[in-house]
Amino acid sequence: MSLHIQNLTLKYPGSSNFVFQDLSFELKEPGFNSLFGPSGVGKTSLAKILTGDIRHFSGEVDHEGMKTSLYSYNTERLPGWSGVGKHLEKITPAGRQERREELISIFGLEDSLRQRFSQLSLGQQNRVNLLRYLFQDFDLLIMDESLANVDEPTREKIILRIKTLYPQRHFLYISHNVVEVSKFCREIVVLRGAERHPQTIVIRGQDARIDREINKGRLDQTMLEIVNASS
Amino acid sequence: MLLHRRIYQFLIIYAIGLAILLLIKYGLDLSDYVIPGPVDIWHTGTEEFERYFFDVLNTLAVAVVGQVISIFIALLVGIAGRQATWFGSFIKVAAYNVQAYPIVAIAPIIFILLGDGLLTRLLIAAMICYFPVLLSVIGIMAEPVVDIEHFYRVTGRMRWQLEVKIRAFENLNKLTTVIVGSATLAMAGTIVAEFIAANAGIGYSIRVALYQSNLAKILVALFLIGITLSVYQGLLELTGYSVRKWWAEK
Description:
- The complex is a heterodimer.
- By secondary structure, chain A is α/β, with parallel strands linked by helices.
- Chain A is 32% helix and 24% strand.
- Chain A starts with a strand and ends with a helix.
- By secondary structure, chain B is mostly helical.
């Protein structure tokens, strides 16, 4: 499974500015990768192109071997008429109850199940939302600020366990946290704006895992490369 | 609480209106024939209360049935018209155009065709409150609640029933307000129908009082209309609040 984008060009109807102009990059292997860049650079637009929600673009988007691409974002909500636990039960595909329970424990959400979504903190809400995507069918999951407002240790625990549980899936983690993407992501696609060439630079991240310590010096180096690429 | 608020708000407005009338009467030294004094109004009230009360109930019953019919049809059409298909667009455009026409102007045609019976009053009441309700329902149903619907859509779980449920739940406050507001329209429609040609209801009694130039009777009728409508609207608000609570706690 690989993701190959060639000469992608996008301009919104009525706008004179390009969002992307001849944008190209490739993510060859499954894993935890990132889309990084300043606000307004087109991360969400690119995510929506990958999931098929935006179609009026030119260029080639090839998701080889990826049948299902999902896009999750941090302002999603659950319906107000049911509790969190009830909702999760209802949307669990057959045979995935065990995985659901495992994820609930990893995400530290046992105490939130009896509550309404609106009663949860923003961090809990984001965890619940991401969690429900993880037991659906997907080959590519785009996480657009999906762990925003979650405390750092919990975020780290969640990302590391996701990487262990889903080694053969593609993840695209959209975040503004340079430390986080440098540390956990295998490849970081830095989007630089349509006026710059090349429009993207792909940087190798430290790809931290549960069973692998990372080198602080290399992490600093990666962070520096990202900052340089995006500035 | 909502019920109390509605009732005392009406009583305040009615008292202010009455005070202005009496100020005009005494300020301009008008006779009791033009604007009756408080004692006259009180006497007329005690004399006519029972008859007018049942007249108002009669009118309210027609208005309620007309309102229920119009809400039911508006929900059906609104749900059908929520989609971005040619049919949905057609319904939306038709609804916007038709509502721009003052439906009450069609009332004489309905009387010519159907006569002055219950059906005519019902039809006019329903028609007058139907279009505002329809526009609101279409507006609510055609507006996606993206942050909730997204998950169901991308995971292939979205069905039209779920879509309607999400949009109705998220807009229950708006829907309640629209339904409460449409009660006034239904009541107004029924009274207008009774003004034009009918032999029952408070509108008919007001017409008789008008021919007698009896302002006291009209003031008593207005009081009863107002208080009854306030109670009805308060009950509708309470129902909306209870539905929301029940739905959220289910």
